[in-house]
Every structure is written in structure tokens, then in C-alpha cells.
Design goal:
globular, 60s Ribosomal Protein L30, Chain: A, seven-stranded antiparallel beta sheet, alpha+beta, Jelly Rolls
């Protein structure tokens, strides 16, 4: 064998392990993520382990039991979990295909809602009761099917009776966890246990994400708006219908109201928010943002079935440290969400998420491209109930 061929063989042998080591598996798939099975009361779906107390019945594969008739959001069935007035509650667990690692961040979504009817027997009175008092979901990491080693996430009380997609963000701090447990729980603090239900469907894979700020500073609620608009600041965010590809020439600037019309809005569609201004590297909304934010507010008020995600984006001037970009984009998205909630839009209709510089719409090599990447977007998550 010639020297050149020996040299190339050595390079290949040593290059393969390094390339493989650099490609970490970042997706964890659930078994039976849509909770499919034969509709039946008191039986956990295949792939999910019952984590309730031994003397109580397991969760239910719905619809059909206890007067629950809601159509699934995905597939043919979904999971029903209840909390009871005797201080017991239902939950399910699953062993993960890959552990959640300490100090890493993860994300998955799941459709959740509450049934208007869930008729069963009260554990305290022995009489028929409607298990409809709103409850919340808790997500635990552990090292056994029902082990609650660390509380990783807790939702607000689930009041919506139509399916809504909810994003769960997990950040294990105390250890690595090979199991995940999901349980229904009471509104806290619990003064008196009560009867309630939560429905679950369509869980996405768990994806590893870049860790954002541990606790975001509270963004100011709807600030007083000046009666006259000031000159746009340097890092203002211009609004256009979302450009599908960087190569496409941007359309002239349009107001959010003229773009977000009921006849053209649909689930999954994304819009860039016009005339929302922040000081450089800050997230407090400037007074000149009144017009753009009010247009979005008026649209949401006039379409009460629409649920949106406010997405914050930055350019890559913070490279190679993504943590500040992640924090800034999240805080800006949260500031817009808080503004809408303070104006009267219910919080279950407004989610927020920061994407940092991970989703540019233009190359970051020019000042104009960086300005366009520094933006706030609205994505339609759900509509028509």
C-alpha cells in the first residue's frame, strides 16, 4: 500500500468517530403518543403505565365513557385523567427511549382541553357528580414509571373546552431521568379537593432545544400609549406577510389588520408583526407600538376562537453565544403576549416563544438582512374551536 493510501486510510479511521460523536440524537419519541386504543373506562392506553393509587381505577381511553363525547384532535381516541374529591388523582408514566439529561433543555407539545361532561360517582357522597372543575397538568421526571423525582413543568388551570396545543418546556436540574410521568392535579393551593378532568391527545416527540433564561423577568403589561407616534427606532420590526424563502423579494410593508383577515387566516399561517418597537437589546415595548399592537388586539377580540403564538426572533450578532439572543427574543415575545392579556385577551389564547437566531428569513451578512431577522411573528395555532 502506498504512503498516500495509508495516510488517507488513517484519516478515515480517525475522522468517522469524531463525526459520529458530533451527531447526538436529540429527539425522543413517545410510545403511542396519540393515546390510541379501544375506548374503555379504567384502562391506560398501550405504552402508558397507570400511576394512580392501587385502590382507584386507572385513567380512561376516551371518548365514550362517563358521557364524554368530544371528538379526538388526532387519531381515534385520547386519554382522560381526573382529580377526585377524596384527594386522589390520575396519571400515566412511560420509559423514555433516551434519558432527559441534567442541565439540558427539552420541549414537546400536546393537545389538551376539558370535557363539559364527565359523569361519575363522587367518592365522598356516593352520588353522581360531574367531574368538570378545572384542573392542571404536572410533568415529572424520574427513574421509575411513577417516580416523582423532579417536577419539570406545571400548566395553568385548564379551562378551555376545545382542543388547544400546549408546549411543555423541560429543564432537569437534579439528575438524569429515564421516565416521564404526566398527571392531572388540582388548582393550587388546594383548599378542598374536588372532581375535575383533563383530556390529552397528540403528543409530539421530545426535542432537545437551546436553554433559554431560567426565569424571565416580568415584562411590563400594556404600557400607556402616546397619542402621537415618534420616529421609528433603529431596531424596529417591519411587518409583511411571512416570506417563505430568503430568495423571495419582500412585499411592501402592510399593516397586520389588512393581512390578518378572517377569510384568509388559517391554522399554521405566520405573519410578521408591524410597527412594534424596542430599544436595542431591551424588551420593554415602546409607545410608538400602539398601532401595530392594537390591530392585532382588535383582530383577536373580533375572532374569539383564534389562538396564537407570539414568536420572538433575533439576528446572530450575539454569535457564538446564543443565550442572550434566546433570552431577548423570549422576553420580547412575552412582552407582546402580556400586552394583549392586559388589554383583555385571555391567556389561554396567547402563547409565546423565543427562537433566538435559529430561524433567519434573510442572510445575516448585511445590515438589512439582520434588521429583517430581528422580528416578532404571530402564528395561528388554532381556530374554529
Amino acid at each position: 500500500m502506498s504512503f498516500e493510501r495509508k495516510f488517507m486510510w488513517v484519516i478515515c479511521v480517525f475522522a468517522i468517530p469524531f463525526s459520529v460523536l458530533g451527531q447526538k440524537e436529540q429527539t425522543i419519541n413517545f410510545i403511542n403518543p396519540s393515546f390510541e386504543g379501544l375506548p374503555k373506562a379504567g384502562e391506560a392506553p398501550n405504552g402508558w403505565y397507570d400511576c394512580g393509587k392501587p385502590e382507584e381505577t386507572p385513567p380512561d381511553i376516551q371518548p365514550g365513557a362517563f358521557a364524554v363525547t368530544k371528538s379526538p384532535s388526532h387519531g381515534n381516541t385520547y386519554l382522560g385523567l381526573v382529580v377526585r374529591d377524596n384527594e386522589t388523582n390520575e396519571g400515566v408514566g412511560q420509559r423514555l427511549s433516551k434519558p432527559l439529561e441534567k442541565d439540558q433543555c427539552y420541549e414537546f407539545s400536546m393537545d389538551i382541553c376539558r370535557s363539559e361532561l364527565y359523569l361519575s360517582t363522587s367518592k365522598l357522597t356516593g352520588q353522581e357528580a360531574n367531574y368538570v372543575t378545572p384542573a392542571k397538568l404536572r410533568v415529572y421526571g424520574g427513574n421509575g414509571y411513577c417516580n416523582k423525582a423532579e417536577l419539570l413543568y406545571e400548566t395553568a388551570v385548564v379551562t378551555n373546552t376545545r382542543w388547544l396545543s400546549h408546549t411543555f418546556r423541560l429543564h432537569p436540574k437534579n439528575g438524569n431521568y429515564s421516565y416521564l410521568m404526566i398527571e392531572a392535579y388540582y388548582k393550587t393551593p388546594v383548599l378542598f379537593p374536588y372532581n375535575g378532568n383533563i383530556l390529552l391527545d397528540n403528543a409530539s416527540p421530545i426535542k432537545q432545544i437551546i436553554c433559554g433564561p431560567e426565569k424571565m423577568p416580568d415584562a411590563k403589561p400594556a404600557p400607556p400609549i402616546a397619542s402621537t407616534a415618534k420616529a421609528p427606532p433603529k431596531d424596529k420590526i417591519r411587518t409583511q406577510p411571512k416570506v417563505d424563502t430568503p430568495a423571495k423579494k419582500p412585499e411592501p410593508s402592510k399593516s397586520t389588520a389588512s393581512v390578518m383577515e378572517r377569510k384568509t387566516v388559517k391554522k399554521g399561517k405566520t405573519y410578521r408583526l408591524d410597527k412594534v418597537y424596542f430599544d436595542t437589546n431591551k424588551y420593554n415595548i415602546k409607545d410608538a407600538s400602539e398601532e401595530g399592537l392594537n390591530e392585532l388586539f382588535q383582530f383577536l377580540r373580533g375572532n374569539p376562537d383564534v389562538v396564537v403564538e407570539i414568536g420572538g426572533h433575533t439576528n446572530n450578532v450575539m454569535w457564538p453565544d446564543s443565550s442572550f439572543a434566546n433570552q431577548l427574543s423570549t422576553n420580547r415575545a412575552k412582552a407582546v403576549a402580556n400586552w394583549l392579556v392586559a388589554k383583555g385577551i385571555t391567556s389561554d389564547r396567547v402563547q409565546f416563544k423565543g427562537y433566538g437566531w435559529t430561524k433567519p428569513i434573510e442572510p445575516n451578512i448585511t445590515e438589512e438582512g439582520r434588521k429583517k431577522n430581528q422580528r416578532v411573528e404571530i402564528t395561528i395555532l388554532n381556530m374554529n374551536g
